[in-house]
Amino acid sequence: MKQIAPSELIINNDGSIFHLHLKPENIADTILLVGDPGRVKTVSDNFDKVEFSIQNREFLTHTGTFNGKRISVISTGIGTDNIDIVVNELDALVNIDMESRTIKDNHTALTLVRLGTSGGLQEEIPVDSFLISKTACGFDGLLNFYRDRNNVCLTEIEEAFKKHVSWSPLLTSPYFVNGCNDIFEKLGEGMFSGITISAPGFYGPQGRVLRLPIVDMDINDKITDFNFQGQKITNYEMECSAIYGLSKLLGHHAATCCVIIANRKKKEFSKDYKPHMKNLIRLTLERLTS
Predict the structure, then answer these.
(1) Do 222 and 203 form a contact (C-beta atoms < 8 A)?
(2) pLDDT tens, 17-76?
(3) What does the angle CA 171 – CA 173 – CA 176 come to, to the nearest 5 degrees?
(4) Beta partners for residue 245, in sequence order
(5) Which of 9, 25, 209, 282 lies at 20 to 30 Å from 94 by C-alpha?
(6) Domains defined along the chain, listed by start
(7) Which residues pair with 263 in a beta bridge?
(8) 3-state secondary structure 113-150
């Protein structure tokens, strides 16, 4: 069986994987992903116990148990570029033999659930509400670097969207990917849902204007008005598309749940979203372990 070269699968001297500094035994099969390293403790404070903790750069991991179920929580930092690191390295930990550097015969599927914050794009979605992403739309272009992206992407909606907004050829082609329906059904009761855009930046790529004008000043109005067979785009954030796309390609199960901290249509921002984030964390943990 072909070995993966040391330059491609980088393993630290202690046997841990390069960026995350994790070994296979350090992680659970159910992993919560948060952007902010400070939010890891907010999650693990709910655990019955924490058995393992390690940090390298922005990547902080706590592994423990909740309701008797082993769970890990990992901070990813911001952006789909970091998600490319996190998801590929987590997959390697469970599906590549780290000693022989060969792909294992038996595949392990992880459950990856992102818990984050997001800006709403539909007027009826109030600030401080919860939203679960049925579908992700990537403005980031990450999945376009992987050969089989069309096998997991919704190309019909992709083409309809590009036509609707007059997508500039200077931009990376957007891609649309569904999350895991089983996790959606398990977590989504009482939450808003829809299509979530993952943008490669916070300002211009999400239609914000401070001092720099953007290419299309009407882009957010076009996005809000987009409707494909009853599906609307509900919110912006910065990681979901890569989580969904890479998980589909690698055979993992993924979902994203966010607290809506801004309503872009109504120009509103949450007065204090942190208590709502704690409630979302607790609710997700309980539903994942019920």
Answers:
(1) no
(2) 999 999 999 999 999 999 999 999 999 999 999 999 999 999 999 999 999 999 999 999
(3) 135
(4) none
(5) 282
(6) 24-288 (3.40.50.1580)
(7) 120, 268
(8) EEEEEEEECCCCCCCCCEEEEEEEEECCCHHHHCCCHH
